[in-house]
């Protein structure tokens, strides 16, 4: 368990938009050490961290991140992508869903988007703020986004100061190719 380069870029995006975060309902999926969720909470968002319910050690890491950052108000729930659970059903509508480097294994893409789609049904205006590291030109979300009636906007890294090899004194982004996406329902009328 460690901070991935994409988490630093997503945390930078949150910091850039910190003025819009107070009071927002934010869920981080696949949180791991939870840097983006911790940043959102420190900026005033009402945050829920989640990781796989099948990986209790990951959930414990989320809890430890909250303790180390003095954030007792942040809840941690187990959510397994593509599975309906009591915890998933009990989630309140979210304003923002954070996902740092969850688009890692192509066989998980549909399960992730199934879970996102379910959450979008609770609040059709919710946005998924996601970063991912480009690992293969053969991997694409486009067909799945179309299938699930979602659209994607690529956010240029330079628009929020994340186009450098180091961000906020962290060399983690390094020379990795990281993309920032904002995903929402395709229908403009929602």
List the helices and strands and how they pair.
Elements: H1 5-16, E1 25-29, H2 35-42, E2 46-51, H3 56-68, E3 75-78, H4 86-90, E4 96-100, H5 109-122, E5 127-133, H6 142-147, E6 150-155, E7 178-185
Parallel strand pairs: 1-2, 1-4, 2-3, 4-5
Antiparallel strand pairs: 5-7, 6-7
Helix pairs in contact: 1-2
Describe it:
This protein is α/β, with parallel strands linked by helices and 190 residues long. Helix content is 31%, strand content 22%. The chain is built from six helices and seven strands. Strands 3-2-1-4-5-7-6 form a seven-stranded mixed β-sheet. Helix 1 packs parallel to helix 2 (35-42). It starts with a helix and ends in a 5-residue tail after the last strand.
Notable traits:
single chain; 190 residues; alpha/beta; 6 helices; 22% strand; globular; SAM-dependent_MTases_sf; Histone-arginine methyltransferase METTL23; heat shock protein binding; EC 2.1.1.319
């Amino acid at each position: 368990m460690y901070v991935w380069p994409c988490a630093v870029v997503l945390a930078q995006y949150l910091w850039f938009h910190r003025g819009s975060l107070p009071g927002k309902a934010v869920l981080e999926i696949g949180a791991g050490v939870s840097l983006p969720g911790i940043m959102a909470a420190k900026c005033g968002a009402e945050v829920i961290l989640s990781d796989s319910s099948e990986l209790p050690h990951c959930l414990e890491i989320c809890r430890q991140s909250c303790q180390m950052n003095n954030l007792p108000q942040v809840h941690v729930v187990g959510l397994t992508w593509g599975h309906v659970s009591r915890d998933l059903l009990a989630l309140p509508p979210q304003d923002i869903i954070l996902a740092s480097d969850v688009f890692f294994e192509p066989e998980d893409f549909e399960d992730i988007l199934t879970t996102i789609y379910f959450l979008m049904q609770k609040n059709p205006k919710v946005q998924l703020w996601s970063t991912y590291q480009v690992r293969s030109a053969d991997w694409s979300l486009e067909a799945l986004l179309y299938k699930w009636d979602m659209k994607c906007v690529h956010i240029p890294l330079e628009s929020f100061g994340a186009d450098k090899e180091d961000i906020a004194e962290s060399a983690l982004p390094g020379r990795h190719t990281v993309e920032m996406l904002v995903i929402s329902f395709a229908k403009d009328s929602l």
